[in-house]
Amino acid sequence: MKLTRKQSKQRRHRRIRGKVFGSPERPRLAVFRSHQHIYAQVIDDAAHQTLVAASTVEPELKAKLASGGNCDASKEVGKLIATRSKDKGISQVVFDRGGNLYHGRIQALADAAREAGLDF
Q: In what order do the strands lie in the sheet containing 38-44?
């Protein structure tokens, strides 16, 4: 039986979440990608708490970007999540790509976060 794209993504997501767990010392950087926007959160899974968040729907980024659904927008969100994390004292995270392939917008966000000083 051939799986649909949605089923393949859900299967990858379940497989990834079985392995990736955020701790207080090294929280999880979770990425969600929609067609028009991209969202990133730094989550402490032990405390069930979001520590830092950034997305393209925020007014400061929305005014600066032409579109929220391209690689340029992902780079800006990656830089923003890294600077906010560093302000909170978080320098190391584990990366949760959320079932998406590590390519395109997901890769752009991850590379920008690494360049801004986040270690994963």
A: 49-55, 38-44, 28-33, 94-96
Name the band, by pLDDT with cuts 50, 70 and 90, for residue 1: confident
User: Closest Cα partner for 93 from 46, 25, 34, 8?
Assistant: 25
Indicate whether 120 belongs to any domain.
no
Which whole-number Å values give the CA distances from 81 to 69, 99, 109, in the listed order? 17, 20, 9
**Whole-angstrom Cα distance, residue 72 to residue 52?**
21
3-class secondary-structure state, position 22: coil
Helix (H) or strand (E) holding 54: strand 49-55
User: In whole angstroms, what is the distance from residue 57 CA to residue 38 CA?
Assistant: 8
pTM for this predicted structure:
0.93
Q: Could you give phi then psi for residue 29, rounded to 5 degrees?
A: -95, 100
CATH number at residue 45: 3.30.420.100
Indicate the average pLDDT of the chain: 96
- Please count the structural domains in the chain: 1
